[in-house]
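Possible regression after last week's pipeline update?

I re-ran a chain I had predicted before the update to compare outputs. Posting the input and the new output here so someone can diff against the archived version. Not blocking, just want to make sure nothing changed silently.
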Amino acid sequence: MKKKISVISSVLVLLLVLTLPAFGSHHGTVKPEKKGILLVAFGSSIPEAQVAFEHIGKKVGEAFPEIPVRWAFTSQMIRKKMADEGKNLDSVAQGLANMAEEGFTHVAVQSLHTIPGEEFHELKQTVRAFAHIPEGFQTISTGLPLLGDQKDMERVVSAIISTIPEQRKPEDALVLMGHGTPHGSNAFYTALMWQLQLQDPNVFIGAVEGFPEINDILPILQKRNIKKVWLMPFMSVAGDHARNDMAGPEKDSWKSVLNHGGMNCEVILRGTGEYDEFVEIWIDHIRNTLNRF
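New output (post-update):
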């Protein structure tokens, strides 16, 4: 069903861009170069989670002070919920259409996703559609998500190690919650965990909607006689999943499962977007995209 929806979404995007005006340009004229950055995130309606987006925006603005930055959000559910609260957020297609109307000629579209999963590939489809509009952007390109290649993997390992709370002891476990996906890119989580455990064998990565789940990790912790677990989100924001699926009071939350398994939990509600170490990776991806223009 999701694949069918994705196909329908792609068709709608194509119809949208084909029916858009020629973005204010005139035949035979050359628009002056105007570079822009479009940051694309899933989104979150949790007020406390917005600090991550604010931090990312601040760091990107500092890295590229001469280039305007715009935002778009891929979750239709989040956009609708925020609209009901009086705050309108752009979809990727609308964000790009607005930038075209503003006269941008070169656009670096930066994914703020963690892995190159379904949403990242849908983002690339939308960008490709805009790239083929006559008299549209001269150049438009998509930057890799946080984990795009092996170099990113190594940098993320270092970022995770450097952001572990100082109070955490070597005998304590650190369990990171990723989102997870049915897409094949879910394998990034297990690959990352393997490389992390080469440096610290008590660091684990699970997924709330993928593999491994918390019930796959729990027996390993029990076998190692782990008594204390630090829980941290491995998502750009500490939103609904972090506050409810990871740290909530429900019996199936990760904290409750671990507590029931005989472990005490310390929860850190900070998304990767709140740490410079992770944001710098996204910024380098933007820089790589801009360097191709």
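Follow-up from reviewer: compared with the archived run. The mean pLDDT is 91. Marking as no regression found.
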